[in-house]
Design brief:
heterodimer, A: mainly beta, seven-stranded mixed β-sheet, 0% helix, B: mainly beta, four-stranded antiparallel β-sheet, 57% strand
C-alpha cells in the first residue's frame, strides 16, 4: 500500500505570492489533516477534512485554506505569503482507526 | 486546553547506551490517546506506538519500551542499546476527539543523537 504522498517536496516563493500544496492520502483513507512545523512553534494543527468537509480548524489566519476532493486528495493554499510562513507542511491521513495518523514527508516551503 | 511537554530538547548518547525520552501531558479529557512518533531527516513522522487513556499497560517492542503512568501524566519512551539509526527527532503527542475529528497536540520534540 502506498503511503501518504505530498507534492512538491520543496518550494521557494516570494512574499505576497500564493502557493498550493497537494496531499494524496493512503488508499481508502477519508480523513486528511494538515500541520505546520517550524523551529519556533513546533508542530501545529492547521485543519482536517473528512469526505470533502472541513471538520476542524486550528488557530491560523484566513490566508490558510484547504479543500478535499471526492477521491480524498487534499490541497492546502496559502495566499499573500509572509516570511513567517516558511515551514515544513505535513499532511496526514487516517482510516477507520481515525486517531492513528499516517504522515507524508512534507513540503518544505521557503518564503523569500 | 491540552499541553504536551518534552523537557529534553536534545539528548546525545554513545551507541549501546540506554536512553529515556520524557513526555508529560495535561488534559481535562478522560478519553484521549497518546502517541510517539519518530521524525528522521527525511521529514515524515513515523508512528511508533499508541496508547489510549484507559490502557496503562506498559509495552515492549524489541529495543523500544514505553511506560504510561496516568497518576503522573507521563508517557516515557526508552530505547535500549541505542543504535546510530535511532538518531532522529522524537515527538510525543496527545490526541483527543473534537468536533468529530481527532486533533493532536504535539510536544516540541526531543532530538536524539546517537554517536558511534
Amino acid at each position: 500500500k502506498a503511503g501518504v504522498t505530498q507534492t512538491p517536496r520543496y518550494l521557494i516563493k516570494t512574499r505576497g505570492q500564493q502557493v498550493t500544496l497537494s496531499c494524496s492520502p493512503i488508499s481508502g483513507h477519508r480523513s486528511v489533516s494538515w500541520y505546520q512545523q517550524t523551529p519556533g512553534q513546533g508542530l501545529q494543527f492547521l485543519f482536517e477534512y473528512f469526505s470533502e468537509t472541513q471538520r476542524n480548524k486550528g488557530n491560523f489566519p484566513g490566508r490558510f485554506s484547504g479543500r478535499q476532493f471526492s477521491n480524498s486528495r487534499s490541497e492546502m493554499n496559502v495566499s499573500t505569503l509572509e516570511l513567517g510562513d516558511s515551514a515544513l507542511y505535513l499532511c496526514a491521513s487516517a482510516g477507520r482507526t481515525m486517531e492513528k495518523l499516517f504522515f507524508g514527508s512534507g513540503t518544505q516551503l521557503s518564503v523569500l | 486546553a491540552q499541553k504536551v511537554t518534552q523537557a529534553q530538547t536534545e539528548i546525545s548518547v554513545v551507541e549501546k547506551e540506554d536512553v529515556t525520552l520524557d513526555c508529560v501531558y495535561e488534559t481535562r479529557d478522560t478519553t484521549y490517546y497518546l502517541f510517539w512518533y519518530k521524525q528522521p531527516p527525511s521529514g515524515e513522522l513515523v508512528f511508533l506506538i499508541r496508547r489510549n487513556s484507559f490502557d496503562e499497560q506498559n509495552e515492549i517492542s524489541g529495543r523500544y519500551s514505553w511506560n504510561f503512568q496516568k497518576s503522573t501524566s507521563s508517557f516515557n519512551f526508552t530505547i535500549t542499546a541505542s543504535q546510530v539509526v535511532d538518531s532522529a527527532v522524537y515527538f510525543c503527542a496527545l490526541i483527543r476527539l473534537s468536533g468529530g475529528s481527532y486533533i493532536p497536540t504535539f510536544g516540541r520534540g526531543t532530538s536524539l543523537i546517537v554517536h558511534p
